[in-house]
């Protein structure tokens, strides 16, 4: 058990937390959510002892081992991948080192023999004799080829290192597992393998993640960092989001009778209770949800951008035909057709192939062979993966920056669009060159909305966005009436938007009208 009692933390004059009281228990998965800068990762550091709070304490049950996902990929360069995984269990490694030191003594005596006997007993109790095979099994589970198992970490590519460090955090069945953005830089298959592993994990699991599909899959509880507090709710991310939005709506309609509000919430909770009861890891969730009352859920203070892509001119029947498209070093003889109504999710083992394709389609790269034939009625908008060149060196204000992409130049009109994307008041006078990654992304989305094209091209649009903006973008893409060509690591976005999946490796290896989850099952079965 992990008990958080009266924890408060301030940085200078800024209050992050005040009187936080939480209890994390075995068999549950807790997703920590909150706006950027709210203190999610800081709270994890308090739990793991990296940061000492100004007030209060974190109490961990005696003899319980905590494991934390490491972020430093260079920390284990002198170890092999297998040894790096085993180093996830510090006590086991210490026993191994002590044993080796004792056995290496030239003057090994009776006292040393007694000590080694104790160490051997503890070593066996911790399954030390199976440590290497257990580590190899974990690496295999997460798709780390055997050729890497006994290779030094210094020689292993970063994408594989991420998987090794993930295996390290899971090694030895820790009592408390703390994961900060565990799906970052993971491919869809490895993410699914992690989901399956965590669904069977029977101890305490605490996660920070922007991956909504992942949070929905594994979480039994959501801890919302808001109002300087951390409030815990039963259910996954979707339940928290929908209930929070419901409460916000009801708070704005105070003239409604309390009975009507309670009835609406009761029906909502009942619906989610039925869904939750199907989860492997949520046997008690249904009963807990049924006990919730109106006062258990507080509207979130966080703001969501308003993302709504309109189609100014409806597309004709001819959308896009790509034939025998070849880009040296990326792909060859790529052919596909986009039909009216298609929202195509592109996938590849190497995402630079898709970026190269999108640059060609958007007219930003003419160094190719083959044909790209757009329909005469098509007007497209493009959001590249790297859009820094739209902002770097631009001294103009956001209002003036956005005005460059708008036929309407009125300041009030442009400020209204910026307000939709959470740039209110004086924020519209920021210089374009000083924006953060998330702010740049929201500006690019505003630019795309202003163009009102009937086809949208998105190259990893959720990069740099927080959960609120990702959720708003997801809804905007679902509601959009035109065609979409996109790629994203966000599985929820792929699952809920795409009605066609195209896989590109050296050429097109998959092209079918299919949902993303079904594609994953078929392609990787």
How would you describe the overall organization of this protein?
Among the domains are: 148 residues, P-loop containing nucleotide triphosphate hydrolases (Rossmann fold); 204 residues, P-loop containing nucleotide triphosphate hydrolases (Rossmann fold, 3-Layer(aba) Sandwich). Helix 3 runs antiparallel to helix 4 and helix 10 packs antiparallel against helix 11. It has 19 helices and 18 strands. Helices cover 38% and strands 21% of the residues. By secondary structure, the chain is an alpha/beta fold. The strands form 4 sheets. A 6-stranded mixed β-sheet has the order 5-6-7-3-8-9, with helices on both faces. It has a 6-stranded mixed β-sheet with strand order 14-15-16-12-17-18, sandwiched between helices. About 2% of the residues have low confidence.
Helix/strand layout:
Layout: E1 2-11, E2 14-24, E3 29-34, H1 40-48, E4 55-60, E5 66-68, H2 81-86, H3 90-103, H4 110-125, H5 131-141, H6 146-149, H7 158-170, E6 176-180, H8 188-199, E7 204-208, H9 212-218, E8 221-226, E9 229-234, H10 237-251, H11 258-276, H12 285-290, E10 320-327, E11 331-338, E12 343-347, H13 351-361, E13 369-374, E14 380-383, H14 398-403, H15 411-420, H16 437-451, E15 455-459, H17 467-479, E16 483-487, H18 491-497, E17 500-504, E18 508-512, H19 516-523
Parallel strand pairs: 3-7, 3-8, 5-6, 6-7, 12-16, 12-17, 14-15, 15-16
Antiparallel strand pairs: 1-2, 1-4, 8-9, 10-11, 10-13, 17-18
Helix pairs in contact: 3-4, 10-11
């Amino acid at each position: 058990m992990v008990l958080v009692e009266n924890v408060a933390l301030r940085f200078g004059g800024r209050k992050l937390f005040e009187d936080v009281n939480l209890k994390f228990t075995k068999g549950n998965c807790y997703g920590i959510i909150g706006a950027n800068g709210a203190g999610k990762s800081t709270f994890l550091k308090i739990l793991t002892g990296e940061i000492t709070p100004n007030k209060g304490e974190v109490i961990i049950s005696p003899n319980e081992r905590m494991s934390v996902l490491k972020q430093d990929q260079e920390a284990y360069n002198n170890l092999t991948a297998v040894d790096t995984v085993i180093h996830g269990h510090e006590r086991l490694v210490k026993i191994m080192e002590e044993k080796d030191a004792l056995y290496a003594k030239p003057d090994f005596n009776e006292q040393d023999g007694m000590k080694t006997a104790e160490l051997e007993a503890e070593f066996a109790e911790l399954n030390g004799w199976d440590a290497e095979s257990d580590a190899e099994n974990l690496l295999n589970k997460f798709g780390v080829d055997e050729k890497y198992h006994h290779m030094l970490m210094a020689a292993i590519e970063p994408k594989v290192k991420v998987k090794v460090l993930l295996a390290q955090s899971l090694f030895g069945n820790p009592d408390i597992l703390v994961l900060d953005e565990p799906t970052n830089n993971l491919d869809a298959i490895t993410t699914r393998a992690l989901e399956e592993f965590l669904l069977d994990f029977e101890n305490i699991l605490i996660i920070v993640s922007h991956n909504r599909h992942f949070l929905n899959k594994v979480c039994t509880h959501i801890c919302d960092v808001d109002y300087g507090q951390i409030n815990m709710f039963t259910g996954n991310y979707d339940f928290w989001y929908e209930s929070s939005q419901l409460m916000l709506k009801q708070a704005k309609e105070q003239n409604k009778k309390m009975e009507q509000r309670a009835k609406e919430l009761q029906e909502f909770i009942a619906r989610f209770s039925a869904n939750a009861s199907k989860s492997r890891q949520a046997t008690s969730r249904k009963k807990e949800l049924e006990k919730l009352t109106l006062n258990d859920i507080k509207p979130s203070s966080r703001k969501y951008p308003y993302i709504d892509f309109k189609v100014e001119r409806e597309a004709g029947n001819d959308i896009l035909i790509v034939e025998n498209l070849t880009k040296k070093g990326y792909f060859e003889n790529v052919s596909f057709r986009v039909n009216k109504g298609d929202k195509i999710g592109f996938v590849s083992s190497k995402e630079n192939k898709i970026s190269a394709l999108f640059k060609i389609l958007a007219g930003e790269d003419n160094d190719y062979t083959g044909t790209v034939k757009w329909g005469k009625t098509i007007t497209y908008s493009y959001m590249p993966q790297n859009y820094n060149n739209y902002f770097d060196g631009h001294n103009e204000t956001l209002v003036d920056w956005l005005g460059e992409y708008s036929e309407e130049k009125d300041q009030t009109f442009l400020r209204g669009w910026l307000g939709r994307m959470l740039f209110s008041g004086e924020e519209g006078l920021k210089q374009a060159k000083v924006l953060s990654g998330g702010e740049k992304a929201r500006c690019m989305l505003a630019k795309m909305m202003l163009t009102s094209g009937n086809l949208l091209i998105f190259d990893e649009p959720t990069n740099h966005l927080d959960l609120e903006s990702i959720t708003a973008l997801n809804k905007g893409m679902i509601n959009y009436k035109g065609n979409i060509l996109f790629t994203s690591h966000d599985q929820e976005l792929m699952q809920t938007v795409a009605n066609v999946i195209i896989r590109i490796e050296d050429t097109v290896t998959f092209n079918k009208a299919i949902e993303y989850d079904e594609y994953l099952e078929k392609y990787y079965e």
